[in-house]
Structure formats: C-alpha cells, structure tokens
Amino acid sequence: MSRASTSASIRSCLAILLVGLLLLVIVLPFASGPTAAAGTSAVLEGPTVLAKGAKVEYTLSVSGGPGGFPGGGYTYTAKLVGKNLTGSSVTPNSGANASGAFRFNVTAPTAPGTVTLQVDIKSTFGANSEELRRELELTVVTPILFVVTLRNTGPVAANDVEVDFYVDGSFLGSKSSDVPAAGSVVVSYEWAVANLRTGKHVVTAIIDRNGELVEFSTGDNVLTQTFYIEPEQNLAGIILSPLVAVLAVLLTLALLRKPGRRPRGAKPL
What we know:
By secondary structure, the chain is mainly beta. The protein contains three helices and 17 strands. It has helices spanning 3-31, 33-37, 242-245, and strands at residues 41-45, 49-51, 55-63, 73-81, 89-91, 94-97, 101-107, 113-125, 128-141, 144-152, 158-167, 170-179, 184-191, 199-207, 214-216, 222-229, 250-257. The strands form four sheets. Strands 2-9-8-4-6 form a five-stranded mixed sheet.
C-alpha cells in the first residue's frame, strides 16, 4: 500500500471516529432520559382526618426524572375514590407546570366514612416520561364541636376577636369574629379526630391571646372545659359516635372594647 493510500485511510478513520464522538455527545443527554426518569419522586401532604363536608388544602411536590430537564415538566390529575362520595370534590383536579409544586383543595364527603385521595403524576421531557401514583387514605368523621360565646358589654364593637383552641395542651387552630356593641357572637371550631383515647380531656380557649384588642371583666382570657370519653366510644378505627362528636362546650365571657391591635399568630400553650 502506498504512503498516500495509508494517509487517506488514517484520515478516513479519524473522520469516522470524530463523527461517532459527535453523535455520542448529541445523543447522550436524550438517551439518559429514561435513566433519569427512575429518579422521579413525589410527596403528597395534607391531613388524613377530615370533618364531613370540610374543605382542606393539600400539597404535591414532584421532582427529578424527565421533567427535571430544561424544557421538561410535570402534570397531575387527582380524584377521590370510595363508596360514598356525595358532596366531595377536588379543585383543581389537574394541573401542569415545570416546577412540580402544586396545591389543590379537597372537599370531604358529607357522610362519615373512608375514602382515598388518588393522585396520578407524570414527569415528561420530550418523548421520555414516567408515570407514578400517590395516595392518601382519608377518614371522614363527624367533628367534635367546640363553641365559645363572646359577649360584648361595651358601647363599641370589638372587631376581629381571635380565639385559639387547644385540646390537652395541643394547638388545634384559630377562629376570629366581630362582636357587635352590646351584643354577642358564637365562635365555633370543628375538631376532626378519628381516634381519641379514653378518659379525661381538657379543651382550652384563649381569647385575644396578647390582650391587644379587648380587656376582660373577669381578668382572665383563658377558659377551659373538661370532657370525658368512655371506653366503648373509642374503638380503634371506628368513627366517633354522634353523641361524642357533637360536643358543645359553652364558654361565655364579657368583652370591653380596647383600642388598637397588632397582627399576631397563635402559639402553642
């Protein structure tokens, strides 16, 4: 073989090698899509015990997989599955974005029971995709009702009076209401609980925690009430009976209007 032929052959081999390397560089990111899809993860968060008819927010966080590539994205569809879904809904029941962060509301059925929140997720980049599902079992109960009656004996309305609710020292939530001058208002809180230990429990209501809006004729803004759960009313996995779930705790307090109020958040006891 002549020297010229040898040089041509070498140049041809080098050209083929360079083309092969170039194709590898171009194809590799796309070929890695299916491998990356295996890394898709999703976390569905929200309460698992709901009061019947209650509207509650849930969050879905999706990351990794094909949707994590630039130009990729995530979608979801959500629904409730169960025997009795009367009055229930998921809003919005679908969504799509590139961040993988979603929020939606679930309205519980109007009757006690167990339903499943089912969310189907898709992580996509070009022709590559991965599908997965996340589920939460939701127990729908008749809630225990705590009631606080606020009575204003002053000549000026007390606006946005906040009441913090606790059971056995654990913070449940807050409700607020305007109390008209020389009038009264009922503030209620529904506590959704599926299993409650037997024995003594204490519900506490703290009105205007920091004393920024009202003063109290009794000098005390902390009110408590004791209630008891009998052994037969606390069977594991059984929804609380209506007699227990509808627990009215009537707490009456006189309010005198006090000027000014700064925003605040409820704090644990």
